[in-house]
Amino acid sequence: MKKNQSASLQSGGKGAGERFSSSGFILAAIGSAVGLGNMWKFPYITGQYGGAAFFLLFVICLLIVGLPVLLAELAVGRGGRGNASTSLIRLSGHKLWGGFGFITILGAFVILSFYAIVAGWTMHYAMLSFTGKLFASEDYAMLFSHFNDSWLPVFWQFLVIFLTGFIIMRGVSAGIEKFNKVLIPGLVILLVVLAIRALSLEGAGEGVSFFLKPDFSKLSAESALVALGHAFFSLSLGMGTMMTYGAYVDKRQSLGLATLAVGGGDLIYAFLAGLIIFPTTFVFGLEASQGPGLVFVALPAAFSAMPFGSLFGGLFFVLLAFAALTSTVSLLEVPVAFVREAFKWSRGVSVFVVASLCFLIGLPSAMSLGNKVSWLTFGGKSFFDWMDFVCSNIVLPMGGLVVTLFVGYAWKGAAKEAGLRGWWLQTWLFMLRYVAPLLVLLVFLYSAGIIKL
Fold first, then answer.
1. Residue 427 structural domain
2. 9 falls within a domain
3. Among positive and negative, which fits the CA dihedral 289, 294, 299, 302?
4. In this model, does residue 72 exceed pLDDT 90?
5. Total count of domains within the chain
6. Per-residue pLDDT averaged across 325-334, rounded?
7. Which of 43, 107, 222, 323 has the fewest CB atoms within 10 Å, i.e. is most exposed?
């Protein structure tokens, strides 16, 4: 039975339900891309690096680097019909490429271990907001600190991984696809509702102007690299997710059109996030560039000051929780797909083992927050921060660089699998061979602190 299933996967058959429908694949890929990054990280880096001018730069980087690499990852996944490691081996015939692919799998696993903690924060804050307890105290920094000093983050981390595992255990079509078909439309509705509420605030125009009226004098070389890095990472590139999802795509699916749809969905999500965050921060005198604390410290203060703040605050954190879960699902599927192929385990056993290990690996990150375990903070960073730093600045750029070099130089069947011809094909290959590797390398060197701007 397992041999037949493996053969079916490689030949492009249904593979016991391990296939996306056309719309299901696009929604799942959009769900993987529109995680917490666009609602949590995007607003404060936009505030730090130039507002509307930075947003325009982000769009350009998304088009010239993000989309070509996204198409490359999807093509590798569908062409290899396996996990991020075996797909590279099957297409190249060399195990060395598989080793590079395993790095992306390991990256997804480690990212999930600490990403689940942040996803848990959003669930906790949604509950506090709906019950009104979030606004019982005006010191939101202290509230967030006390929360992380407790063991509640571990409970929420467990709940996030449990829910993610439950979805993944149901399979590709019955689990991942159905989940995203419900949550992605729900995300859009919540985004629109919250954007309308933010734009209706008195004085919202100043925030909209900051977000949409470019001042190019605020841009710098550092802004360009940060925009490039966020465009790359906001599409879930370099972590094996798009290669894994690509393995479940039907051969009749146009990867070019799917790439445009996913990129468009990611861009719309970032745009609506900006229309929510910037009018709100400007109206209530908040600093949009203050960093990660913007969401969990500054915005609760804004919601407490507006009519029906408990409702809109709750909806905002539910939105974040939805976005986080669509990403945790894609992250968990990456190592699960690898374990299923490597050990020939059933999906249920694979999910249980990987999810359990992910929870255990994530415990040091959860315990390093606050004052629970002091020895988990070293070198000026908590264990949580170190995991984030290593994955974001080393593992993911390396994974992205591997894919661009593999598709650009090593894989002869890339053009056929991508479905591009003529000018489009030549442009795509030029970007992958010359532009994307250089820019990704620059992001890597800058993020790792090797070059300074």
1. 20-447
2. no
3. negative
4. yes
5. 1
6. 95
7. 222
Res 224 pLDDT > 90: no
Instruction: Please report, as a single letter, which amino acid is at residue 93.
Output: G
Q: How far apart are CA 216 and CA 56, in angstroms?
A: 10
Number of CB atoms found within 10 A of residue 389's CB: 15
Helices (H) and strands (E) in the chain — how many of each? 24, 2
Please give the full DSSP string across 89-136, using - where no structure is assigned. HHHHS-HHHHHHHHHHHHHHHHHHHHHHHHHHHHHHHHHHHHHTGGGS
Residue the block writes with tokens 């190019």: 216
Q: Which residues pair with 377 in a beta bridge?
A: 382
pLDDT at 29: 92
CATH assignment of the domain containing 170? 1.10.4160
**Cα–Cα dist 99/172, whole Å:** 25
Distance CA 293, CA 236 (A): 23
What token pair was written down for 64? 């010239």
Helix (H, G, I), strand (E, B) or coil at 378: strand
Distance CA 422, CA 102 (A): 33
- Residue length of the chain: 453
**What local confidence, expressed as pLDDT, does residue 448 receive?**
73
Output the pTM of the full model: 0.91
| Long-range contacts (CB closer than 8 Å, 24 or more residues apart) made by 279-282 | 279/198, 279/199, 279/201, 279/204, 279/205, 279/206, 279/207, 279/208, 280/198, 280/201, 280/204, 280/207, 281/43, 281/47, 281/207, 282/203, 282/204, 282/206, 282/207, 282/210
Question: Is pLDDT above 50 for 15?
Answer: no
Residue 349 lies in a domain: yes
**DSSP track, 172-227:** IIIIIIHHHHHHHHHHHHHHHHHHHHHHTSTTTHHHHHHHHS--GGG--HHHHHHH
Residue 224 in domain: yes
Which residues, 6 or more positions from 165, have their beta carbon under 8 angstroms from its beta carbon? 332, 351, 352, 355
Distance CA 224, CA 228 (A): 6
**14 part of a folded domain:** no
Is the pLDDT confidence value at 36 over 80? no
